[in-house]
Amino acid sequence: MLTGCTRKWALGIWRPDPTDKALRALGKVPESILSVRHFLGASLKFNRMTASGRLANKSIVVIGGTSGLGLSAAKAFVAAGARVVVVGRDEEKVKAAEAELGGKGIGFAADATDPKAATAAINIAAGNFGGFHGLYHVAGGSGRRQGDGPLHEITDQGWEYTLNENLSSLFYSNRAAVQQFLKQQTGGAILNMGSVLGYSPSPHYFGTHAYAATKSAVIGFTKAAAAYYAAANIRFNVLAPALVATPMSERAQANQDILAFVSTKQPLDGGRIGAPEDLDGAAVFFLSDESKFVTGQVLAVDGGWTVSEGQIPNAAPTSQPAPAGANVLRTLSNLWNRLTKATGK
Fold first, then answer.
1. Secondary structure, 3-state, 57-104
2. Does some domain include residue 173?
3. Residue 43: its pLDDT value, please?
4. Which residues of the chain have pLDDT under 50?
């Protein structure tokens, strides 16, 4: 774990295989076989790259990378060939996360709401891994306990806390990443954590309007930055999950009514709460060269949330109004009855 210093890492060095040259010198292998071997070798190399090296030689910083979605993604990045710096507040969690990364990551204890934290983490990555290629901003959280809620109930403290946690911290990290990319003149990738609640509200169980405001703002901020920096090959995208099993969602996970609602609101894969690893594939894609022609996009990894109604358990059924045609016929019938009575027919 790092709290202000840096650590040098021994990196492996590739050396060419002299076999082909030696075989040609001996004259024992036909050129056609060597060509086939080269083809197969290239294919195997490509397959290895697509299977486990999609982030080979990449250096990535994960803000909020010591638990939940961030740690899961950091492990996926390492498995795909990257070196990572994970940032979190809790020093014990930072130590544990670094251990889980198996010598391919550095933990850095810092508060994402500190304007200097992201800059320090990026410098650690660049200094230890020979460059900086991508930022994944996951840090943030609910402000419910601090006073977030429906608009008429939000306290000033709840509003300020929620914006600081979810929006200011993201601004600091994105600014630091762009400054480094421009300095390097390399381009790069930035992936921001959004939420379906930024554009697909759920008032019955998730009526935290300051949180929704921050996640909506993340989308607008990301798209504006994507447009501005596209010519510099700096890409910005958003992942928008629905309800995922993380420390932040413990309240929802313990509420049986919410779980019943989620089973219909997130109907994919049997109707369940998402798992952190459900987002890992998308995160790897956005931070790899596979997405080099993708920017300004919002990808919902939501189990079907945005296309499903969701049924509130034990909700009283609402009376349905009669079809418009039936109302017209009833009105005409009543009018006819009154006319016939008035004329005595």
1. CCEEEEECCCCHHHHHHHHHHHHCCCEEEEEECCHHHHHHHHHHCCCC
2. yes
3. 39
4. 4-51, 318-320, 322
Whole-angstrom distance, CA of residue 58 vs CA of residue 98: 17
Question: Nearest CA to 302 among 237, 219, 242?
Answer: 242
Contact at 8 Å (CB) between 111 and 102?
no
How does pLDDT run across 54-69, given as a tens digit for each residue? 999 999 999 999 999 9
Could you give the residue numbers annotated as active site?
A: 211
Examine residue 37 and state whether it is found in any structural domain, yes or no: no
Distance CA(122)–CA(175), nearest Å, equals 11
| DSSP reduced 3-state for 223 | helix
Q: How many domains does the chain have?
A: 1
Within-domain flag for 132: yes
The structure tokens 């418009």 sit at 324
Name the helix (H) or strand (E) containing 259: helix 256-265
pTM listed for this prediction: 0.78
Residues 68 and 244: their CA atoms lie apart, in Å, by 9
Q: Which two tokens stand for residue 343?
A: 């004329």
Domain-located, residue 13: no
